[in-house]
Here is the input.
Amino acid sequence: MMHDQSAQCASAIVALPAVIDLGCPDRAYEQLYAAVADGASVVIADLTATTLCDWSSLRRLVAIQHQAAARGGQLRLAITPGSPVHHMAQLMDLDHLLPIYPSVVQAAAAGPLPHLNAPGLRHPAAGTAVVADITDLIGADLLHILRWQAQFGEIRRRRRDPASWPALATTWDTLARLIDLHMRAKDVICVPAMCDPGRQGRTLAREIEGAHENIREMIRETGRQLPGSPRWWHLATTTLSAWTVQADCEERGLLADYRRRAGPALRCQLALQWRAFMDAQIRNQDLSRPRRMFADGSAP
Here is the structure.
């Protein structure tokens, strides 16, 4: 963390890691909290090198801004335009609540800004608001899960390398929880709204919910195995295969049909429900899980 004492009040620049996710927002944001507690008038969260950050973790930045504002300070974000993190911030309309700049230099050079948490007030440099609909949020969520799948696939390719073992259980645990959370949101928010209330729609809803429960059972069974064992690898890869097929089926079927027949107002209404559900679920999640041993006896 770098401090600039040239002004009357100190400013702080905190470079955040490349990956910020459900399991590590406290660790990732520890320096931001510390900078706020130290009394910096401007704290800049440098996300220009961040390539993976889920929307729930971005929401945590709003809480840090509240703490900074209570001390007379302000949190600013530096996010590379066009990056996955920038796209997620746009979907969330995050610039309603936080000033966002394309670089750390521009964030540091900007003059004092008004309090951004007032309803309807936006950062003066922000672009046109992007109002997300439910298909945008689902698409962003699926892309995020896909990136974690790719990371898990890379570990699988290097599974005979001991250097890859520490990331194995953590990556699978995050991936499994993201998939489970996505399916629960679909079951609660999407399936009732998107499936026709008639007989055919009820049948489709039961099929989707049944497929989701089957994948959850596969996740639970994987969790009963020793990470890194042959049985564990078989179940983990089979679970991901089943999830990929099901997500693709829903994208081509349920979601494609909903895009054709639902207007923007309905899609945005569902998006608000999706966000509220996700926020509540993440707040209630217990992220403290006991560590387990790998099949060779080593600890993650």
User: Anything to note?
Assistant: The radius of gyration is 21 Å. Residues 155 and 163 are 10 Å apart (CA to CA). The chain has two domains: 2-109, 134-284. Residues 230-261 form the longest helix (32 residues).
